[in-house]
Amino acid sequence: MAPYLVNHPKLLHNWITARETAIARVRAVERASDAEIATLKGLLDRVLEHLGQWPTADAGQQAEIARLDRELTMVRAQFFSNEAWLSEPYPWNRLAQWAESEASLETQEMLNSLTLEPYGPLIDELENTTASDESETTEPGMSAGSLQGLIEEAYGWALTYDFSDQAAETLFWYRSAEKEEPRLGKRRDEPGAELELPIGIARDVTRLHHVLADTNPDASVAEFFIEHPEFRRIARRVQSLAHLPYAEFRDNLLDAGCEPIDILRCKLSIFGAVKFDPKSMLWTRIALFQGAPLPDELTLPEADDWFAPVLRGAEP
User: Residues 287, 289, 295, CA angle at the centre, nearest 5°?
Assistant: First the structure.
């Protein structure tokens, strides 16, 4: 999944922009109606039941679910049962601010998802904003100094990594010959690094920036490419994506501590996956389409109401 998202940066940007815009719109709701509050109270109760049906053998995920349950129970008692608190302006913004400072990341994201649910008329049109054109364009007339400044402005995060440290370049991504699937190798322990996929954006940007520092700042990018053609791909990427704040994973995907499971969960969550059950740092079991209506149920009023689905009377 990591190669797909790295190779579709504009799509990733559009996905995350739609999500962040939706959250921002809901946080900007000044007064929640009685119907919206009632919907959220019912959904919160369902979420708590949903958590009890989230099976996993992973100790870390078990701890996250237990904390999520505790914090959402507190949210229900402290906020959703407090009519005075709910009646004050911007309740969902205040709830998000509380979560950002006091709650776990799991709780923050569950509350983000929860509070979107009653506001379909406010946010549903954002689904039309996610298509992307992944073409990239080189600006050969840009000066080397301007390109260096662009990196420092938009890719400053990449310059924080020390690639003289071998641990920062431990991993390499490649595609298997048998199944054409992305694989992860250890650069100093396994063969195949020469077949590496261009996933190390932070490393490549850092190398480009280092060479630009020793280049005449008034030279054009075209002139720079004559001397350093190996940087054409990464320079084109920087020029094309610098204005898109969500186009890059702002991390070093080659580092020894990289956990691809986080990238996998990001993409799967966009597709509606729930009940993440990690089996290693490389793969996870999930549930998809639980609660989705069957064909003969599509015309029922509750056909679109399957957030945090539960199985009545079922064991986890």
Answer: 150
The domain in which residue 232 lies consists of: 144-241
**Is the CA virtual torsion 305, 107, 50, 74 positive or negative?**
negative
Q: Which two tokens stand for residue 112?
A: 């983000």
- What SS3 class is residue 143? strand
For residue 163, being part of any structural domain is answered with: yes
Q: What is the pLDDT of residues 82-138, one digit of tens each?
A: 999 999 999 999 999 999 999 999 999 999 999 999 999 999 999 999 999 999 999
53 forms beta bridges with none
**What stretches of the chain adopt beta strand conformation (E)?**
171-175, 182-186, 274-278, 284-287
Based on the structure, what is the number of domains in the chain?
2
Residues 203 and 252 sit within 8 Å (Cβ to Cβ):
yes
Query: Is this model's pTM higher than 0.90 or not?
Result: yes
Per the document, the length of the chain is 316
Give the Cα separation of 36 and 294 in Å (integer): 27
Looking only at the bridges linking them, the beta strands covering 171-175 and 182-186 are antiparallel
Q: How far apart are CA 274 and CA 50, in angstroms?
A: 10
Q: What is the pLDDT of residues 284-306, one digit of tens each?
A: 999 999 999 999 999 998 898 99
Q: What is the mean pLDDT of the chain?
A: 95
Cβ partners under 8 Å of residue 299, min gap 6: none
Which residues are 173's β-sheet partners? 184
pLDDT tens by residue, 52-73: 999 999 999 999 999 999 999 9
217 shares a domain with 264: no
Question: CA 92, CA 172: separation in Å to the nearest integer?
Answer: 42
